[in-house]
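Thought: the user wants the 3D structure for the chain below. I'll pass the sequence to the structure tool as-is, report back what it returns, then summarize two notable features.
Action: structure_tool
Action Input:
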Amino acid sequence: MPQCGVELEPNQFYCSVCLDLLKDPVTIQCGHTYCRSCIEGCWDQEKEKGTYSCPQCREAFSPRPVLGRNNMLAEVVEKLKRTVTQQARPASSLAPAGPTDIACDFCCGTKRNKASMSCLTCLASYCPAHLEPHHSFPVLKLHQLVSATVPLKEKMCTKHNKLMEVYCKTDQRCICYLCTLDDHRRHSTVSAAAERADKQVKLGEIQSAVKRRFQERQEELNELVQAVKDFETAVKSSDELFDELISSIQNKRALIKELIETRQKTAIAEAEDLQMQLKEEIATLGRRDDDLEQLSHTVDHIHFIQVKSCLCPKMSAASFGGPGLRGLRGPGPSKAGSARL
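Observation:
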């Protein structure tokens, strides 16, 4: 029992499977303690294998160990529950694993959560809840964590079942350290980290070339877009120019039509005046013609001479000319007038 003044760390009494305070704690042969239901659930899934492993250290046991209750630890946990308010674990980041997702290796049951990180030291994948010990315990903080994007089995050597941490330059593939002792012992090998550093430099060069190419293509695209805009602007300007020209022609047409109508009215008025003058003159000439006709038939020579002098004093052929139609101008505008418009 802890003495008065000794501070208890709740993290020491959490089950690494359910990440909650231990319930009916049992301690297995390797020394790790779990909830009875948690460890039994994990081992039920390994029944077909015939071997049963510790979820934390992966030590294997066969046959299946008999579980015994850790009474002392159970009492400590009960006292801790009464003195410390249990904090609920956030589950907002937990999501069930889909068909293409990597499942957490520590989740028990049929519905396992999606793994967010894989530990290359433990060779296991963890959901955010089961990854918590790697952020809390100093020993686990030293483990190498990577994003759980590729199943761990793809990083394991199929022959030796070891992590492929070596790169064979001869065969251009990753191998484990045991492969360097047999099949690849005469090959040129480096660590996967060293090969990654070398390829990272080459990748940077390729990326720089891609960025330059991208920039060139982007500039060409911008030029093409600008050319299309300039073409559209030119078409719009030509349309506006033709619209202005058509409007100008229509205005000129209206002015010419108005001028023709004005001249037409003036010519009609002049023609009507001239028509009245001509009618009056024709009437006068008709009467004079009758008088002259009578005079031409008289036999009295003296009377003929006297009357003739009275009827037509100083009359000559030029006296019979009139205003005529030469003073009238037609309704159409002249070419010079049209040019001025």
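Final Answer: Structure generated. Helices lie at 36-45, 71-83, 132-136, 138-141, 192-296, 301-311, 335-340. The domain at 1-87 is CATH 3.30.40.10 (Herpes Virus-1).
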